[in-house]
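Field: COMPLEX_INPUT
Field: COMPONENT_COUNT = two
Field: RESIDUE_TOTAL = 649
Field: MODE = joint
Values follow.
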Amino acid sequence: MRFIFKTQYNQDIALAKHGGHVFWYSLLALFLVAAPWVLAEYWLAQLTFVLIYAVVGLGLMLLAGFTGLFSMGHAAFLGVGAYTEAVMVNAGVPFPLALVCAGLFSAIAGVVVGLPALRVKGIYLGMATLSFGFIVEEGIARWEHMTGGNAGLSVNPPAMMGWTLDSTESFYFLCLVVAVGATLAILNLLRSSTGRAFVAIRDSEISAQSMGIHLARYKTLSFALSAALAGIGGALYAHKIQFLSPDQFNIIQSIDLLLMVVIGGLGSVHGAFLGATFLIVMPQLIAMGKDFLPAAIGGATGLQGTVYGIVLIAFVLFEPLGLYGRWLKVRTWFQLFPFYRRGMFKRQKSFQKSDRLK
Amino acid sequence: MQVLQLLISGVAQGCIYGLIALGFVLIYKATETVSFAQGDLMMVGAFAGLAAMTWLGLPFWVSVPAAIVAMGVFGVLLERLVIRPILGQPAFSIVMLTIGVGYVLRGLITMIPDVGTDTHTMPVPYAGQVLQMGALVVAAEQLVVIAFTTVLCLGLFAMFKYSKLGIAMQASSQNQLAAYYMGIPVQSLNGLVWGLAAGVAAVAGLLLAPITFVHANMGFIGLKAFPAAVVGGFGSLPGAIVGGLVIGIVESLAGFYLPEGVKDIAPYIVVLLMLVLKPNGLFGEKLRKKV
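Field: COMPLEX_OUTPUT
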């Protein structure tokens, strides 16, 4: 059990609360910097994917986990970012500029979606974002002279001023820098008044409004920031995958992104990273597990979907706080040993709260 | 005449959307949750009908009710096993849960060896027949869809209006707590509502099967039923059918008069317009919380 003796007010909002944080996160940073020399190239590529999805996940976490607005069409923002990046880089625009533009265009798309979203709540918002996702996917497929349509679009490696990041290692470092930057930005945002306003809106719109929080402004801002992060993630994704087609940004991708934040743990920054790791590692685990299953089950095409579904159901039923919630429980168990009680993380049920009456 | 032809095919397609949307609305009204598994329940219903007809060799008129009843029982079990434990959690958890259920259903059907990955034709007695009315040619499949939907809607209407069960369901959908105090067994009613929704989904699947074939991904049509439910107003049963018809007709007309590709997104454009102009839908109830 650790007691933090606070002698300064700034300790309340410090990013590293105590020496343990400093130690473990430094260790993690050390590992991430050393990864290209430690890991095989295949696993380095997977780690790059984890970082890319974590950037997108941070965006969706800000929207769904911290502002309480659920987007069922987030792949559309990913797509807008990816295609902006691809078209600009292929046209010879320096890479950092293209990355900024990708984020910016996605943010504009986010504001456009955010505007009707101000009038609707709950499931209607899900419908609005879902519809937007379908429209963007179809738009990408039909705008052929720009996006290549269903034939796809190949993406050049990121380059600026005669300097090309075409190796796995250099691209990994680029993703690492972007992911760390995004994480620090989100952490800083969450301890600022804007971040507190988001959380207040999530917990209760009515009380947030009566505290003087401008709902429309903050909701739109949340949509814009979330879409910008998704766009930046999409730009990196475009370079990683090197070939874009509209069906990479369909409803399945949107649901995968939601699955990522729910399984990672809604309402925690760690959750975005844990969820991204889950999303990348799970198919590998399934592929490995196939060898141990009878051929009839192991070879079936539906195996991955079934496992995803079962894991999702299990998490919603038994661990609604996701992987991060499970880690919190384990940690508390060790910290308080032997005084951990079963009801410490008990969920509160509310049968009165009705969406229709909000 | 062309327009009439398009209208009829639009109405037939719209009836399917409406039936799936009816399932959403039933569940939404009763339990305040949205089931993303409705399209996949429809798919399983179609497969159940197919199994009854081809493997068990039952005649058409036996296997259709059998499939519907089996899906109803499946719906009740589903509610009991996975939905009931998390009632009272945030609505979004339940949405994710039903997405998971949909994944599992689709995955399991795909995993059935030699059957799941193929496309099947449902052997219905009215397959391929057409009805000639002057210059108008109507496929029997479409007529059956329209007729069956009408009958089902009248039946549901009568049930909600006159039967004790239907009135109890209405009461519990309006205010669960008050209904519970009045002695209505809300929990088992919720189970029945899920059963009813799964049964309606099975009807939709069986009606759709002769038109589009039976395959594991036919459940994705459920994504077009969401716009139908929203256009009609999420809490209204007649609204679901009307919304379905609107979406079906818009889609059918857009497919003919507008450039290629618009057909697929027309329902979503309609729903976005609807959300901007009239967020409560055509028949939605307007409720404000009083402070």
